[in-house]
Specification:
It contains three helices and nine strands. It is of the alpha/beta class.
Length: 194
Amino acid sequence: MHRRLPVIALGASLIAAALGGCGGAAPLTFDLAAVPGSARPGGAARSIVIAEPTGLQPFESDRIIVREPGGSLSFLGGGQWADRLPRLIQTRLIQSLENSGRLRSVSRPADKVASDYQLISEIRAFDIAAGSGEAVVDLSAKLIAESSGKVVAAKVFTARVPVGKVEAGAAASGLDQALAGVLAEMVRWVNTGR
């Protein structure tokens, strides 16, 4: 019995050491902001459904992405988004359109709300361009008439914001600013057609 105690104690210390080695600083979690409301409520009495954006596999996560000059993508350590990027962008786009006060209703496909239009989009870029030191947001969007299924309008929205250094806080701030520009343009486009 005395011989087993040291083995059990040694096993327990190895497990504790292994678990302790797995620790470390948890990454900071960053959010993205919706565009605030405008001072001009009223306008189109239309309803719209906002689909979750699609994108390449790296954009399907909650990680902040860095694009190297050669085109390779990597995840930036020390930070992450508050949710999967497509769901976060969808939520902020819905909130931005609601904040504009120009539509009868804005919903998600799962809400099963009858609508006049559906907005589908693709994340073409949402990363830090390491070569230029910029936060780059590039979304393509299509507005589809629910009655006919035809694309009635399509546009690509792009914004670039300089980033002081490639680290989590600066990257998240730069991407948030770039997305704010894109969302403002998208809201104007959906509400006015331009």
